[in-house]
Specification:
The chain has 476 residues and is an alpha/beta fold. The protein folds into two domains: 2-246 and 451-475, Aldehyde Dehydrogenase, Chain A, domain 1, CATH 3.40.605.10; 250-432, Aldehyde Dehydrogenase, Chain A, domain 2 (3-Layer(aba) Sandwich). The protein has helices spanning 37-55, 59-75, 77-88, 92-113, 151-162, 176-188, 203-212, 225-238, 260-272, 289-305, 324-339, 373-376, 392-400, 415-424, 463-466, and strands at residues 2-3, 5-7, 10-12, 15-21, 24-34, 119-122, 128-136, 139-143, 166-170, 196-198, 218-222, 241-245, 250-254, 282-288, 343-346, 363-368, 383-389, 404-405, 407-411, 429-432, 448-449, 452-453, 467-475. Strand 13 (250-254), helix 9 and strand 14 (282-288) form a beta-alpha-beta unit. Helix 3 packs antiparallel against helix 6, helix 4 (92-113) runs parallel beside helix 5 and helix 9 crosses helix 10. It is globular.
């Protein structure tokens, strides 16, 4: 079966691309159509045409579509979780959890549709009233990455539709399966023709056409820093709203007073789960002298017990790297770390399993400094570096010494240090005695510096991007 693009309510064919399972490269997950530049322009035109009616659609219609979508995602979480694990390589429990999160996001924004509100204020002029309301923005272009192929599209599409916008959605070329399944659900849930359009394919074709379009009113992007810059430049040229979620080089600080078991658990989860392929992953473990040796020893012992295997196998804790290109990038950075003088204390080699796949043993460097490339540049794999520091103040300074600012964490039993770290950490999200990766679906997500640009995603804060504030005056 060829899975087609959805344009103006119609499934349209195109050149087929095979979706390969990273746990078993002999297995084709499915065949998916690739959109052309003209297909993309047609999708934008369809969204533009549908916007006028959809932006003024009854709130119960929008609520029902989003609620139905959320309910189906939850009901099919095992099936769709399996699909996610097959195409992305995330372990089955993680994949099912991601589908559930997508369902929760749609359920949340179904509720937000019924909570749309504004303000009524008195004017400084007698006899004049002021209303502050929010309008839909228009056609929203959505470009998503491969590492969360269900959750990230959900947290962009759901608010876009909830606030009355129409959508042109381009998923990452590596993971079309989850995108197609999600749009199929929305389509069957009753989304009118043109309200949601799916254009799968290459970024150089589909993505570039979206960037060049003068009819996309807002563009939300999650991906690499380099591509984010291109999104920003094109959006400035076309005077459209844009929102960027990009890289991270997230620190996890371990202080002498930390509970060692909690610190190791959080570090393993932060650095290596989801194969380290999370923008919120911790690849810099900043550890004070008094606990350094015990922490490294305990961490290596835990790493030695991690099960790396097929994403669908029971007991697998870490699945494969997503594809050959990402695997080579990980291996290259392991070589760079050695060349820069860090000590490879554990792992870092390819692993053979029952099926041909992109398996990599998680890698841990010690004797690293914060100036090494492995501590400055995002690797996006199961590779972490331990940086030894004297005390809390040096740990905080090293943690903040980065061009990124997405997530940060600290392991400590001190209320003083926990409170100070939350206040002074230069990150958009701060975790205390928790992994740096993993946030709730109803709270804002986003960072600072080169990690993010524009309003936060998720929760009620999503309204800042997907709506435009209007101030109206009325003389009585």
């Amino acid at each position: 079966m060829l899975h087609k693009n959805l344009i103006s309510g119609e499934w349209t064919a195109g050149e087929a691309s095979s979706n390969i399972n990273p746990s078993n490269t002999n297995h084709v997950v499915g065949d998916y159509a690739r959109a052309t530049a003209q297909d993309t322009r047609d999708a934008v035109a369809a969204a533009k045409s549908a916007f006028v009616q959809w932006s003024h659609s009854p709130v119960l219609e929008r609520h029902a579509i989003l609620k139905t979508t959320g309910d189906e995602l939850m009901a099919r979480r095992d099936e769709l979780g399996r699909l996610l694990a097959l195409e992305e390589g995330k372990t089955l429990p993680e994949a099912i959890g991601e589908v559930m999160r997508a369902g929760q996001i749609f359920d949340f924004f179904a509720g937000e549709v019924l909570r749309l509100s504004g303000e009524t204020l008195p004017s400084v002029r007698p006899g004049v009233g002021v209303e502050i309301t929010r309008d839909s923005v228009g056609v929203v272009g959505i470009i998503t990455p491969w590492n969360f192929p269900m959750a990230i599209p959900a947290w962009k599409i759901a608010p876009a539709l909830a606030y009355g916008n129409t959508v042109v959605f381009k998923p990452a070329d590596l993971v079309p399966g989850c995108a197609w399944a999600l749009i199929d659900i929305l389509h069957r849930a009753g989304a009118p023709a043109g309200v949601i359009n799916l254009v799968m394919g290459q970024g150089s074709v589909v993505g570039q056409t979206m960037l060049d379009s003068v009819d996309i009113n807002a563009l939300t992007f999650t991906g690499s820093t380099s591509t984010g810059r291109r999104v920003a430049l094109s959006s400035i040229e076309h005077n459209r709203k844009f929102q960027l979620e990009m890289g991270g080089k997230n620190p996890f600080v371990v202080l002498d007073d930390a509970d060692l078991a909690i610190a190791v658990d959080a570090a393993v989860n932060s650095s290596f789960f989801s194969t380290g392929q999370r923008c919120t992953a911790s690849s810099r473990l900043i550890v004070t002298e008094g606990i350094h040796d015990r922490f490294v020893q305990a961490l290596i012992e835990r790493m030695d017990s991690l099960v790396v295997d097929d994403a669908l196998k029971a007991g697998t804790q870490i699945g494969p790297v997503v594809d050959a290109g990402q695997l080579q990038q990980d291996l290259d950075y392991i070589d760079i770390g050695r060349a820069d003088g860090a000590r490879l204390a554990f792992g870092g080699g390819r692993i053979e399993r029952d099926t041909p796949g992109f398996y990599l043993q998680p890698a841990l460097f010690t004797e690293a400094t914060n100036q090494m490339r492995i501590a400055r540049e995002e690797i996006f794999g199961p590779v972490a570096a331990v940086i030894r520091v004297r005390d809390y103040e040096e740990a905080l300074a090293v943690a903040n010494d980065t061009s990124f600012g997405l997530s940060s964490g600290i392991a400590t039993t001190s209320l003083k240090y926990a409170t100070d770290f939350k206040r002074r950490s230069e990150a958009g999200m701060v975790m205390v005695n928790l992994p740096t990766a993993g946030v709730d679906f109803h709270v804002p997500f986003g960072g600072r510096k080169a990690s993010s640009f524009g309003p936060r995603e998720q929760g009620r804060y999503a309204a800042e991007f997907y709506t435009s504030v209007k101030t109206s005056y009325t003389r009585a």
